[in-house]
Batch of 2 targets.
Target 1
Amino acid sequence: MRFDILTLFPDFFSGPLNYGILSRAIATGTVQIATHDLRAFTHDRHRTVDDRPFGGGEGMVLKPQPIFECIESLEQKYKENNINQLHTRKNECNKSIIEIAPKSTRDTSRHSVILLSAQGKPFTQATAHHLATLDRVVLICGRYEGVDERVNDLLADQEISIGDYVLSGGELAAAVVIDATVRLLPGVLGHEDSNRFESFGAADVQPNDPADGKTPDGVPRSTHGSGGILDYPQYTRPANFRGAVIPEILTGGDHLAIRRWRRQAALEKTLRNRPDLLARAPLTEEDRSYLATLQASLP
Ligand code: ADE
């Protein structure tokens, strides 16, 4: 998978991309990440990237021209890249790999051009899962008070926001999108399953499943607990830290009891921090009755 980041601050990314899982995924070639300095696509002495908004108003708007020219240069680079790949990856000379543009003919099942902005659709774990299926993602980082809307109309396939707050630019958002996506790529996390059962991950318990520690086909369920709700609390050694002791059940060796405790603790955390998730999470009868007990005990 490859990410191309269009930004006014390419050096910003040397921090977030150089640590832990991301840096390993880059080192092993699972993901390629390139930054492109939008100022390199300006043609005036002052390397101007922004201008005043038509119709008046506060602040400056990113001009379309450097962004269009940068994307056009990437199209050319992709063509060159794929000519090289012909020598290394047999039988993968596929025309759809070559063309990322124009937008009207783009193969969005493999490539996506994304504008990061506070006005975009919310970025979720489902978005990350979708991006992880693509070959190439181009991230356009907005700055100042906005980006000329023609970038959205004519270049971008989607406009994404990482949350209901305004950042000073799309760079932090791009780093978030890349991190959340890359860790889902096959082989990136040590344990292949470890992202399947975390908060917002695949459902571990389906509605009306028997809560006996087995799936309907008899396969024991993971001891992880979430699936559409927040993850359960975790503890590690020491069991007694400055007088704060861990729940006894976790050291008792009864795996079914541990699974049940974790599910209940996850439900409790979700009720407290993200009650909105409970409306669409797959819940068992047992979950619902536990939630009812919790709600009844709320002040
Ligand atoms: N740029 C400014 N705010 C943003 C947000 N919340 N998400 C993505 N890009 C942004």
Note: Residues 83-98, 203-225 have pLDDT under 50 and may be disordered.
Target 2
Amino acid sequence: MTHYYRPLVQTDPNRPTDALPLAGGWAWFNEVEVLSRDSAPQRVSARQAPAEVLERLTMSRPNIAGLSMDRPQIMGILNVTPDSFSDGGQHDAPEKALLHARAMLGQGADIIDIGGESTRPGAAEVPVDEEIRRTAPVIEAIRGEMSVPISIDTRKEPVARAAVNAGGDLVNDVAGFTFDPGLAPYCATHGLPVCVMHAQGDPETMQQDPRYDDVLLDVYDFLDERVAALEAAGVDRAQIMVDPGIGFGKTVEHNLALLKRIALFHALGCPILLGVSRKKFIGTLGNAPEPADRAAGSVAVALAAVAQGVQVLRVHDVFETRSALNLWQAVRG
Ligand code: HH2
């Protein structure tokens, strides 16, 4: 029977002397919850977990694209698309995109994620040439003026190549490197850091009745397998971030099950990136039908994730997230 180990994360700055550091960062633990597909969760002392699991849970994560993983980092979203679910059409001209990148940097973004293909539920695939036409000039313009790390949100190797040639630093693939077999080898050859995300199905159909045996463990197994595949392709494990893919082939209940136990993913030994910003479940539970009204709900979930040791928050509302993080950190002492 396979066991999975979720650290029971604490963030009180008064750490007991025997506490184990979580991923070398701001949180700690001394108990774990043991999960399996066949039996009820069990809470035990962390010392009862296998040594290799403890090693992955506790070890410091190396920097990614120059960003330290021992404090929370904000990834500002820049969608240069006409049809993204919350900001479609707002930044699709290069001058507007540059203005928005500048604004997010001023508000405290640590990295900018640029996407030229909406992956909202129901979205159709964008041809490669068009995706490059949307993203590469914007990356070049930002790189010409700012030293901020830039991530390209794409499933396709030619788009990643054009982005990196224009000054991009990291590849964020919502298809978990399963869409274009050329993307992982390209990242390996160029020593690029990556984010591997879980999705069930393609954006066009993913919200039509998604099903799992056990959403948490199924997503964990998928990411475990994808991290191994990336390593086999030559990507350094230390340069891989993992993301459970909130809203990608998931119901509200699936999203909540993943968020409640998100600390499980630390057992993969990689930093966790989380994208909940303005997503539909925030509107549903937060009584905010309009995406622009979902900042407060998004920030609430982001802080809950940081309290579980999540290292990178992918957000639209950089100002609100930075402000909330500053206060969360200040009152913890
Ligand atoms: N979500 C979206 C896009 N890219 N990347 C990662 N790693 N994680 C996410 O959760 C994620 C992502 C969807 O949000 P958005 O970019 O705002 O919308 P759209 O796909 O409509 O452009």
Note: The first strand starts at residue 4 and ends at 7.
